Amino acid sequence: MNELQKRLEVLEEEKQRLEAVVLEAMRNLKDIRKQISNIRGDKVNWDDVAVRYLKQRNELLTSIQILENTQMIQEELSNPIARKEHMKDLSLRLNRLVKKGVLFKREERGVKGNYYGLAEWIVSGNLRPEYEQKLLINISAISGNNRSF
Fold first, then answer.
1. What are the CB-based long-range contacts (under 8 Å, 24+) for 114-120?
2. Tens of pLDDT along 62-90?
3. Does the pLDDT value for residue 42 go beyond 60?
4. Burial of 86 (0-12, 13-18, 19+ CB in 10 A)
5. Tally of CB atoms within 10 A around 142
6. Mean pLDDT across 81-106
């Protein structure tokens, strides 16, 4: 019985130690999330970034293409946790811009994710021909690289 009591005490101490480790990990995760949302003290304004980049490139792009070409966070994209958080934020903002009518999205077979473009590129419910042509080039480039965005 004495041996069993000692073993129980050891297990209780181990449980308390592990609970402390979990709490510390949760605090660290919270800190990491704060750091992700704060890039050099400024939060990324994905609305502006996405619209500005689409105007600059003047073609439909996937959210991954927009994310990978955002210069202000390039060093963070190598961190998988930061990349996932940025992707989540960007996707949320892109969908909100679609709902507001600033952007539109288009699905294409064989391409992971949606293409996004400026709403002004749509005329009478159809994508203007010059953007349609650019989209086809973009899709063939992605397919040619055997890369899934």
1. 114/62, 114/63, 115/60, 115/61, 115/62, 116/50, 116/54, 116/60, 116/61, 116/62, 116/63, 116/66, 117/54, 117/59, 117/60, 117/61, 118/51, 118/54, 118/55
2. 888 888 877 556 666 777 887 788 888 88
3. no
4. buried
5. 19
6. 89
* Cβ pair 66, 49 in contact under 8 A: yes
Q: How far apart are CA 94 and CA 67, in angstroms?
A: 11
Instruction: Give the pLDDT score at 75.
Output: 66
Strands (E) in the chain, as ranges, are 61-62, 103-107, 114-118, 122-123, 126-127
Cβ count near 90 (within 10 Å)? 21
Q: Which residues contact 73 (CB under 8 A, 6 or more apart)?
A: 39, 44, 82, 86
- The whole-chain average pLDDT of the chain stands at 81
State the sign of the Cα–Cα–Cα–Cα dihedral 15, 18, 22, 28. Answer: positive
Q: Is the pLDDT of residue 32 over 50?
A: yes
Sheet hosting strand 61-62, strand order edge to edge: 61-62, 114-118, 103-107
Please answer whether residues 107 and 114 qualify as being in contact, where contact means their C-beta atoms are separated by less than 8 angstroms: yes
